[in-house]
Write a structure and sequence with these properties.
Layout: H1 4-13, H2 16-27, H3 36-63, H4 85-92, E1 103-106, H5 113-126, E2 131-135, H6 136-146, H7 150-162, E3 165-169, H8 178-191, E4 197-201
Parallel strand pairs: 1-4, 2-3, 3-4
Amino acid sequence: MFTSVDYDKFRALRVTHVATRLEELIQDEANDTLTPEQLFLTAVDDALESRRINKVDKLIRQAAFPIPGATVAEVDYREGRGITQVRMRRYAAHDWRSDATNLLIISPTGGGKTYLACALAIGACESEHSVLYFRMDDLARKLVIARGDAIAHQKLLNELSNVDLLIINDFLTVGIDSDAANDLFAILANREHRLPTMIASQTGLSCRGDFGQRN
């Protein structure tokens, strides 16, 4: 089969996973009836799926979800909660990158808004969207700390402004200083009409006055 020299060539072409999978398929007697073309295409498909899974896992880790195992299937859909499985599945499969419509989740403490936000955002990761999750107080603290380094501060603002889906949980449930408020306003303004933001809060839309009117 393939030699170490062959694998050096595969690495140079960045197709090592395809070659490894092809070798596994060839050695499996169950595939003896497949043509070389079929074996090769199967190896390519398997390698692409493996790469996709690795990317999704990385996106979920980078998002820093408090509930990384949340799923739409495990959401409580009891009557009276105002959510349906059909709607949740639609949101979970939504193309966030092409639709800048924001999503607001309102629920009292203990109502499950964090789980809902994580389940939907993990669905976004599975569609290969980049996601960042923050509690409001943690985000404010991160912005304040970053202000001590102009380069790091601008890098953070750019990251928050350009991630496919930004999630802010416990929105306006705690006070933040004026500098953090200004940064947050700038981030939301930069995302306006470009990229969506998911807000989870105990407070209704009246809270938006604190950060300016949104069209």
